[in-house]
Amino acid sequence: MAIMKPIKPVGIVGYCSYIPRYRIPAKAISQVWTDGKGGTPITEKAVAGLDEDTVTIALEAARNALLRAQINPQRIGAVWVGSESHPYAVKPTSTIVAEAIGAVPHTQAGDWEFACKAGTEAMQAGIGFVASGMQRYVLAVGADTAQGRPGDALEYTAASGGAACLIGPAAESIATFEATFSFVTDTPDFWRRPHAHYPSHGQRFTGEPAYFEHVLSAAKTIMSELGRTPKDYQHVILHQPNAKFPRRAAKMLGFEKAQWETGLLSPVVGNTYSGAAMLGLTAALDIARPGDRILCVSFGSGAGSDAFSLLVSDGIEGVARRAPTTQAYISRRREIDYARYARYRGKLLLA
Amino acid sequence: MTVEIARHWRLNAQRYSLVGEECPTCHDKIFPPRDVCPHCAEAAGPDFHFSGKGEVFSHTAIYNAPEGFETQAPYTVALVKLKEGPLITAQLTDVQNDDVQIGMPVEMVTRKLAEQGDEGLILYGYKFRPQLAAA
Question: Which residues of B57-75 are buried (b: 16+ CB within 10 A; e: fewer)?
Fold first, then answer.
């Protein structure tokens, strides 16, 4: 098994999420398309405002990760932003973020893409970059302003948000990576062609052969290779495209509600795509104690999962309070109706 | 178009991150950056990174927005008194105009200012929102 362990110990030295303040209840979407008679997969989802996009979401998360890490941004050796909603088709999100946090010009920068796991693959690469000694700090961000076709099942869940992880030497970290593992196949469960505004998906095909096959395989392998069982973990975060899939997958793996409830944010935030697993990780880090273990498994359609086993270190004490917690962003909530949502997400034809 | 690009590019630091100057003579903080200190008339410089914290000095709601900003109307424009001294004009965001009050603590965020049509640049820069508490 290709379980990945860094040669030198590497960890997370700073982290933060960002969630826009607007929320549309799933019932408001159901009212428009099913007269309110259809089922709703979550309670509500976060919606980016008119002046927000993947750049601004990534940037706020990155700035707060720096506040928590308390390092000079000039020491960041790479700024990587994973997203499927980069504002430009050609022109990096990462250079704008790097410029705005003060990391330029002596830094590497790049945009990553792999549906909902673009952020975690940037984390994996960051572990390698730091462990190899090529750079001391790498900023890995997952952020999205996901779009769902009006009336489609995904419209209830496709949300906006993101999270940033500053990766650095374990000695300075708040949580150390014990290992990471990826499980990837060519599985066409969800896609978007270059010209298309909205994605297409394989309906029920997105479940068993895609989400469950990849998430469960990645989680089982990393735990068995490390000699761990679900009982060794205080928190588990699985990619959360809705509320049902991650709960079911966590149960199948042998986890209990107390282990997943902190990091399961999709019921009140929606699926923030590249941000989703990382967002759950930030919520767990906000309340984690030294010695806690965290299992985090992302999933990206197309398809693949990245799993991380983390051990929380003493350095976590007092770090959460340096920036707004993920729960603080969730509490900052302004409800909007479908008309305002349609305007904010560019669904109105103005010309 | 080329001139426009250069103009916006030169403003990256001040627009993205509120980078101004500190006068080496009278030590007043200056924003936006300029050649001469507006307080003591000596040469201005070096760079100074503002904290982004301040309070609303005055505000107004914009319903008939100028070209390039129509899609964001209605929005609030405020004079913001920065903690370090300067008074600057900026849009407020993440707040309803009715909820804005003079003296309200605000903080800088970097947001989309405008888009140059469907094929042009997306311009990002500072706005202010009601201050969020850390944890």
Answer: eebeeeeeeeeeeeebeeb
Same topology, domains A10-174+319-341 and A175-316? Answer is yes
Number of domains in chain B: 1
DSSP tally for chain B: helices H, then strands E: 2, 8
Q: How many cross-chain Cβ pairs, A to B, lie less than 8 Å apart?
A: 60
Q: Which CATH architecture has domain A175-316?
A: 3-Layer(aba) Sandwich (3.40)
Domain A10-174+319-341 of CATH type 3.30.470.20: no
Q: Has the ipTM of the complex gone over 0.90?
A: yes
**CB A107: neighbour CB atoms within 10 A?**
23
- Quick check: is B25 in a domain? yes
What's the domain range around B58?
A: 5-130
pLDDT tens by residue, A152-202: 999 999 999 999 999 999 999 999 999 999 999 999 989 999 999 899 988
Residue at B68 is within a domain: yes
Catalytic annotation on A116? Answer: yes
Does residue A174 belong to the interface with chain B, where contact is any CB pair within 8 Å? no
Chain A residues lying within 8 Å of B91, measured CB to CB: 51
pLDDT tens column, B57-93: 999 999 999 988 988 999 999 999 999 999 999 999 9
| Weakly modelled stretches of chain B, pLDDT under 50 | none
Q: Does A332 touch chain B (CB under 8 A)?
A: yes
Extents of the domains making up chain A = 10-174+319-341, 175-316
CA distance B135 to chain A (A): 4
Q: Which of B71, B112, B135 is nearest residue A328 as measured by Cβ atoms? A: B135
DSSP state of B134: -
Question: Smallest CA–CA separation between A334 and chain B, in Å?
Answer: 9
